[in-house]
Amino acid sequence: MSSFSARLPGLAVAVEHALEGWLPAPSIAPTDLHQAMRYAVLGNGKRMRPLLVYATGATLGIPREALDGPACAVELVHAYSLVHDDLPAMDDDDLRRGQPTCHKAFGEATAILAGDALQALAFHVLAHDGAMLASAGHRVQMIDTLAVASGSRGMAGGQALDLAAVGRTLTLAELENMHIHKTGALIRASVVLAAMSSPEVEAGVVARLDHYAKRIGLAFQVQDDILDIEGETEVIGKPQGSDMARDKPTYPNLLGLEGARRAAAELHAEALSSIEPLGEAGEPLRYMAAYITQRDR
Length: 297
Known about the structure:
The chain is 71% helix and 1% strand. The protein has 297 residues and is mainly α.
């Protein structure tokens, strides 16, 4: 067991407590909205993006408490994106994280508002978290980084490309471009925001970390596509085969199942190569790379 993996239970508890602290209490009006926000965020998530924040911070020697803000911010944006992606106008999913999707539990209108509010809360956290080490100027840069990763040049743009690709056969370059935006942008932001939490991190190190995050973000999506075929609904927390049923372009469809596995392994190797100069300090990120490419949910 790696030293970082031994810390994972404590880190998962830390981000859960931090998220609960930022989310409005369910008894505060408007109660339905606040209950929906908490329903969408708290509970059974993998917390992969916050864990990438913490792993990057551990690599760079940044105190965990200074990373709770960025960890919460990326998870809030991720949760909002899932709420909206599950809506009937998007993927029309009934199950998320092993429970009914937010719009099934609270209705479509409340789910839309919950997603909107979670996105806004993410930027509020970056602006106001008192434990962060970043100066006001660095916080503005972090807010800008997350905004770009979330918007039309990032996650939202990738979702638009995904919707437009249903029923089409994409080239490998087109498929990678879609997922660099839809999935990869927020994963890259998770790593970069952690690095930006300390003004002492050298630009060359940030560039290496960004390349690591870009490759591991694609590997995450390849593994997701594989799990859509091989995973079990009870384990992955959403209907197995849902992407295939909607005729969405995936890596296994384009490369075959074995080709997709090879692609994930190659991306994993490229990610590790980019952080090799970090030496032993990069152990947390190497652990996360292995987790991302070997996970079963």
